[in-house]
Every structure is written in C-alpha cells, then in structure tokens.
Amino acid sequence: MSATAVLGTHRWTAEETRILMRAARWAPRRWLRGEWPLEVRGDDVDLVERPGDDSRGRLIACGALLVHLEVAMRALGWLPRTEFSHDEADPRRIARITAAARKRPGAGDLASFRAMSGRASYPAHGLPILSPDEESADGVRVRSLSPRQIRSLPKVGDAIARTIAPPGEEPDDPWSAFLITTTSEARHHLVRAGQVAQRIRLLVTESGLRCSTVTEPFDPAKVRVSLFGLAGIPQLAVGVHHTRRR
User: Fold this and answer.
1) From edge to edge, which strands make up the β-sheet containing 140-145?
2) Is residue 51's pLDDT more than 70?
3) Could you give the CA distance from residue 239 to residue 200 in angstroms, rounded to a whole number?
4) 10 Å Cβ neighbour count for 147?
5) What is the pLDDT of residue 235?
6) CB atoms < 10 A from the CB of 198, how many?
7) If DSSP codes are grouped into helix, strand and coil, which group holds residue 185?
8) pTM (2 decimals)?
9) Taking residues 157-180, what's their average pLDDT?
10) Among 48, 124, 178, 199, whose CB has the most other CB atoms within 10 angstroms?
C-alpha cells in the first residue's frame, strides 16, 4: 500500500477515534477548558468554536489541536484534507478534517506522532531549519531571533526571555526563539498561527531539544497593536533550548 489509494466512504472505527482523541489531548490546551471542541462523524472531524473568555487564545490552541489531528491521521495511514469553514450556516465550525485517501505513513509521519507525546526520534539533528524571515502561507510569518534580539523587543522582550530561560536555571544553556506574527486577527489567521507554532514544537521535539511556548506577554491587545511593526501582529513565541535533553 505504498501508493495513494482513494477509497469509498470511510467511517472512523472506535480504535481510530480513540487515537484521534488521544492525539488531541496531547495538544496544548491552556484555553480549551470545559466543553471539548471536536465533533467526530463519518470520515470527518469538525473543530468547532466554543464559548469562552479568550477567543484569541482559544483559536491559537485550536490550531495546535488541528496539527495533532492531522499528524494522527497520517500515522493511521490516511491523507488528511483540511478545509477551513466559511459557511455562514454553521459559524461555529472552524475547520473540517476528512480522511481523503489511504497512504502508508512514512518515517517522518511516525516521528511527528511520537513527538506529540514528547518522544525524540532524531537526537542527532540540529535546530529546525527555517529561513530567518519565513513567509508562511495564509498571512503568518515566522522570524528566528537570538536572545539579544528577543530582549530588545519593546514591552515584551524581558518577559519572553525570563519565560524561556528563567534566571538561575542553567544560565549557560544556549537558546533562541521563533516569533510568530499574523497579518490580522481574523479567526483563520489565529488558527494558522497556532498550527505553525505547533509544527515548530514537533520539529524541535523530534530533534531531542526542549522548547516552550510563550503567549502571555502578547495577551493585552494594546501590546500587540504597539508591536505591529514586527512584520505583522505578534501572537506568540516558541523558545528553543539548544542543549539536548538528557
């Protein structure tokens, strides 16, 4: 089954559903307390928006959850097709992921699945390879920054640095960070920001490195607006420790 095979109607089995739900629970869920934002039906999984206090934070978290579902589907031998919703008839739905076709998972797919639970696959690899100012699809940009560049960010730099490398904790441990910005705060862009951040986290974990996601300094809207000149609106940062986990 090395070639892609398009099948007829598929329905998630109880075991597949269990694996999908476990993968979803491995995603960062700081803003997803309470009602679970997934609906499984047929060969689809719908990611739906639930009421809450912090819509921005929940949408970023939903992006991370979406990545975990896509990775789990690949590990199960399915090619996922993700469609973001623009249907006014069901405004709650953020995205729908469908098992589009059968394809045997590759080594990279299985490595990503292991990384969701914190397991490294490639301890000899270095940092995730991203260009210094990578323009991702759908209005999300990633910038790779040194500790000096992070600390020089107005209003948020010191807080980000303290979160990634708390004072007194392995002071000689080298680190850097990826800053993720969006062109707007539309629902689609915030979900994409969460997706991009989680893909970086999985790559870092695969490589046997430690990482942390920093969102709190960007929570106040006035702070994000004041930093708009950073190639977009800053939403979060992913800190990466370059020393390998023991």
Assistant:
1) 133-135, 140-145, 175-182, 233-241, 210-214
2) no
3) 10
4) 17
5) 94
6) 25
7) coil
8) 0.86
9) 84
10) 178
